[in-house]
Design a protein that fits this description.
There is one protein chain. The protein is mostly beta strands and 298 residues long. The protein has one domain (8-297): Neuraminidase (6 Propeller), CATH 2.120.10.30. The strands form 6 sheets. It has a 5-stranded mixed beta sheet with strand order 1-22-21-20-19, with no helix packed on it. It contains 1 helix and 25 strands. β4 (58-63) and β5 form a beta hairpin. It is globular and about 45 Å long.
């Protein structure tokens, strides 16, 4: 599992080449300077923070190297609690709602992520779509709705699980991989698709899909949406990766100072963003930011 998130999207990322264009050179984009608080797990080389709820409880995963195995954590009140899916080689926690329900997916030998999970702090509940050999759960809202993707190593399709039933999320276009990655308490959904080396992101609201690719970027991956409809994710600009926030058609760009890659994976209703950053694609650090507010988009 390398940057970013170890997903099918990461498989499509290009290797680093010399940076040609700076972040501030992108058209029609406002760069915002956020305050980053680094989150590291003692002794770990790779740390990623994936989800944050209203109480500022955070979940994520860590490892000794980019190739894993991966283990998960809950950070609450400044204290870490570590957990692994029983019998799994790797456990990747992706989201947490205001009830403290944690979601993610687990991997066996070779990091084959065959099923998702729910974890209430005591009991794991497996989630698998039919006979799919891959099921990923990316997020959870307060109603317990689960966005994700399922299929095989070569083909996945997006879904949202609601009340125990799986509903497909049919993003526009043709693609090999599709994932619903975030859902808010209003039922708005974000996600992304991959076709070859092209990644596109979408917002689904009021029965309609809207493309939300970052202006000028070669790839965009949206991961989370809060109840103010602020969407966060990351985008690729040639050799470098930056976090982004989107609200009412306006984009913000941000990155950890000096990092070659910043990925934003979760946002709570206060606008605090969590994710990961790296200076060398070998060592990764988690983070939480100061809140993104409506004023930032003005």
């Amino acid at each position: 599992m390398t940057f970013l998130r170890g997903s099918a999207f990461a498989l499509a990322l290009l290797l680093c080449v010399p940076l040609i264009r700076a972040q501030s050179d992108l058209p029609d984009v406002k760069t915002v300077n956020l305050t980053f608080t680094t989150i590291d797990v003692p002794g770990a080389t790779v740390v990623s923070v994936s989800g944050i709820n209203t109480a500022e409880d955070m979940v994520g995963w860590y490892a000794d190297s980019t190739s894993g195995p991966y283990h998960s954590f809950l950070l609450s009140g400044g204290n870490f609690t570590f957990f692994d899916y029983p019998g799994a080689v790797s456990t990747v926690a992706n989201g947490i709602n205001d009830s403290g329900l944690i979601v993610g997916y687990e991997g066996n030998s070779g990091n084959i992520y065959d099923k998702g999970f729910l974890y209430d702090g005591a009991t794991f509940t497996p989630v698998r779509v039919g006979q799919s050999t891959r099921t990923f759960i990316w997020g959870v809202n307060n109603a317990g709705d689960l966005p994700g993707g399922a299929g095989s190593a070569n083909l996945t399709r997006a879904f949202v699980m609601h009340g125990g039933s799986f509903k497909p999320v049919n993003f526009p276009g043709s693609y090999s991989y599709a994932y619903a990655t975030g859902i808010n308490n209003l039922g708005q959904i974000v996600g992304w698709t991959v076709s070859g080396s092209v990644g596109d992101s979408y917002l689904y609201a009021q029965g309609k899909f809207k493309n939300i690719d970052f202006p000028g970027a070669s790839m965009t991956a949206a991961f989370s949406i809060n109840d103010s409809s602020v969407v966060v994710g990351y985008y690729q600009d040639l050799a470098q990766f930056f976090g982004f926030a989107l609200n009412k058609g306006k984009f913000l760009s941000f990155g950890y100072p000096g990092a070659v890659a910043t990925g934003a994976y979760g946002v709570n209703n206060m606008g605090e963003v969590v994710g990961e950053y790296t200076f060398d694609f070998q060592t990764f650090h988690g983070f939480v930011t100061s809140p993104i507010t409506a004023e930032n988009f003005q």
